[in-house]
Amino acid sequence: MTDATATAHVFDVDQQRFETDVLQASLTTPVLVDFWATWCEPCKTLGPMLEKLAAEYNGAFRLGKVDVDKQQELAGMFGIRSIPTVMLVKDGQVLDGFSGALPEGQLREFLSRHVQPLEALPEDEAVDEAPLETPEEAVNRLQQAIAAEPAKTELKLELALALMRAGQTSAAEAELTTLPANLATDARALRLRSELDLAHALKDAPTLAVLQQKVQADGNDWAARDQLGVRLLLESDPAAGLEQFLAILQNARDWNDGQAKKRLLAAFATIDDAELVGRYRRRMASLLF
After folding, report:
1. Domain residue limits at 245
2. Is residue 265 part of a domain?
3. Does pTM top 0.85 for this prediction?
4. Burial of 283: CB neighbours in 10 Å, binned 0-12, 13-18, 19+
5. 40 an active-site residue?
6. From the candidates 22, 23, 40, 230, which is the catalytic residue?
7. Number of folded domains in the chain?
8. pLDDT tens for the chain, residues 1 to 289
9. How far is Cα 224 from Cα 211, in angstroms, rounded to an integer?
10. The one catalytic residue among 25, 43, 50, 196
11. Same domain? 152 vs 214
């Protein structure tokens, strides 16, 4: 496949754009990465089927094509030993994968474990912009909607998000725990879970000034450095917060069951600055691999 034949759901992947087009993009939409080559006969069978399914799923996932001859270093990073090899990347991590040209039935079974097709909107259907409302107004509106249509479970996820925006973390968490399985793995639910995990880390934590004094007095006080990182991340300076987690990862990778890596992944899921996330994700990878 060439750039000229790329579609909204299928694109070519190179090393320069991998961070943005695959890892960062997978935080909102799963990316299926197909490692292939022009001389590979099974690839000629598998590739068109994957492109067909990408179109059929209508944006539920995107298909990234990696020509291993042109992107040898990228293929090496993933330890590709045979082609075709396919990996599903979600939330910045390789979630699943397979090697070889599976028949279409098995491809559909593989995809069904992780994504569901999206229905296309009619071309002439206008999308009205939602009126601006405060988080509290959103909470009230959604509570009324749930009371009127209790079987409409997707409203519960919207309510959990609205409660978090309104600062009602306990209520948001309560709604999150009641979500059905298909919504619990929604990208918005995963982000909310990361936000709640970070918020929990500050329960009974000292003030920012006290934590800074603790770290200054003892740079190896990993618990204080961890809490300082979370405070900075959520309250004032995300980059400085990420620096604290990187310091723990570099000097005490296994501290508290590898908590620094978990903190970084949670932070990446909640920060909207793609350039900042990409920069620190690369620094994390350089320490881990």
Report:
1. 208-288
2. yes
3. no
4. middle
5. yes
6. 40
7. 3
8. 433 334 678 999 988 888 888 988 888 889 999 999 999 999 999 999 999 999 888 888 999 999 999 999 888 888 888 899 999 998 888 888 888 888 888 888 888 888 877 655 454 444 444 456 788 888 899 999 999 988 888 888 889 888 988 888 889 899 888 888 878 877 788 888 888 888 888 888 999 999 999 999 999 999 999 999 999 998 878 999 999 999 999 999 999 999 999 999 888 888 878 788 888 989 998 888 7
9. 6
10. 43
11. no
